[in-house]
Each structure stands twice: as structure tokens, then as C-alpha cells.
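Q&A FORM
Asked by: J.P.
Topic: structure of Lysin

PROVIDED:
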Amino acid sequence: MSLNGFDVASYQAGMNVGEVAGDFVLVKATEGINYTNPEFNGHVKQTLSAGKKLGVYHFIRNDSDIKQQADYFLTVVKPYIGKAMLVLDFENTTGSTIQNQAGVGLAKQWLDYVYQKTGVRPVLYTGISCENSLDWSSVVKANYGLWIAQYNNYNVVNGYQPRDLYGSLKHWKTAVMFQYTSTGRLPGWNGTLDFDVFYGDKSAWDKYAKATKMVTNKSIVRKTTTKDGVWTITNEVGTFRPSQKLGIFKYPGLELTGKYYDKGESVKYFGYVSNPQAGYVYIAYRYNSKLIYYVACREIATGRALGTFE
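REPLIED BY: S.T.
REPLY: Here is the structure written out as C-alpha cells.
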């Protein structure tokens, strides 16, 4: 048993995806930390109103923080968690060359974080050459499914015509789904579409959409931000691990305590402060339950993180 469907982004503006043939639609939701597909809400509502299965995806970038990307995605798709397959799109794009081994680590970080927050295990999308050339063993061992892409040519494909994958997977034993052309044509839309085949029935799709573990708090907590003079203060709880030795300040960027956090040590913070003139974003944490100390975590000018966020 298999299902036929297609995936869409802003390129399909004006399309009523519910009126075009198919068992499912995968809709681009977000990219990076500040882009939401303007067609997202409309296409999602059309999909659900037509009784089709739904998938929503985030286009990952390596030029912005992964945790912030995941939080941004979860905020946008929150109404559909438990109803939609969650997907991470792993491709290179302008300003973000992520298809390398370091990028695999970023993808794993995103997948783990979304799974931790929602209990839903996301699926990874990438092309067969990328699946073959990089080491995906950590992602496979964590049991994240694969949506694989591979085209033979760019000839027009009229109607769904699933075929076998040309070549073979190196790291995954099987794929969840296969995108086999980007030049599909269906009545009801005058442009081309990416065609996909899902290897399972509607019940199997629902299993990918629903939580597979309990989460302590499934709600997506919105950050609260306030201003104090030139400083922007954001309340957020998390863990930061420096990628280098970092000094500890009594105030953001002022009065070093003489103590340090070494590379890889964990800092549990309750918020962060930023000021363009200071040059850095500083996480705030409590020392001995009373004092508040600060550690630089990101360069403001470049956006470069000085460690990883969990």
C-alpha cells in the first residue's frame, strides 16, 4: 500500500491544493529564524479541509542558531502538531552551504530538539547523493525516517507514476517517502509539481504525525522580551555549552570574575541580554542561587554562536 502526493512552497501561490488530486500535501512552513511561507496557512487549511494527509517542513540553514530555528518552526506549526508529519529539509541554498558533515550534526541537533519538545519524531529530507556521501549513522541510529529525492531527468511527468529509486541508499535501509520528479503535472494547476510516493497507508502516515513519547510540557513557550535602556532582555530557559573557554562577568561584558567556563561545560541559563554596542549576546545564569552572572554566547555582528544550545 502506498500514497501519492506532492509538496509545495511559495512557488505554488494561488493554487488550491485541496482541489488537485493526491492523498497528501507537504507544505513548507519556515526557513531559518525569520521566514514563514506566505502560502503556509492557506495551503494547510485546504489540505485538511479536503481530508488529505498533511506534512509541514522547515528548511534548515547553517547561518542561524539551530535551536532558534526549531523554536521558530514549532511556533508556526503549533496548531498542527499531532496532525502533521514534521519534516526537516536538508539542502544547500543561497548563503547556506549545509550539505557537509558539520551540517549533519546541525540536522541531528534540530531533529533531537523537535522530538524532545513535541514527542513527534521528525523525518529528514535530502537527495540521494547527499545521503550516500555523508555519514548519517547518528541520525539513523536515532530512528529518524528518510524522505529521499532522486530525479532521472526533467521530462514532464503527467499524473502520478511512482518508480523505483535509481541507485541505492547507503545509511538507511529503507525510505519513508520518495520524491521522484520535480516536473509533475496534474489537472487543476498550470505549473509543475514535485511528486512524492509515501510507502504506507493513511494509518502509517498518522503514526509519523503523532507523538511517540511523553513530553513533560507539550506547550511551545513563547519568549518574553523587554527593554531596559539600550539592553534587550529575553526570558528563556536552556543549556549552553561553550565551544571555547569563556570568561564569566558580573555584568554583561563588564567586571570579569576571574572564573571561566571551559569548552563543553554546561551552563543552565534563564535568559539572555543583548545590546548592539556591546558586540555580544550574554546568557544570564544564577550562581549559588543568589548572584546573577553573565557569559557571552553569540557575536551580534556575525551571528556566530560561541557554543551550542540545548
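FOLLOW-UP: The domain at 3-209 is CATH 3.20.20.80 (TIM Barrel).
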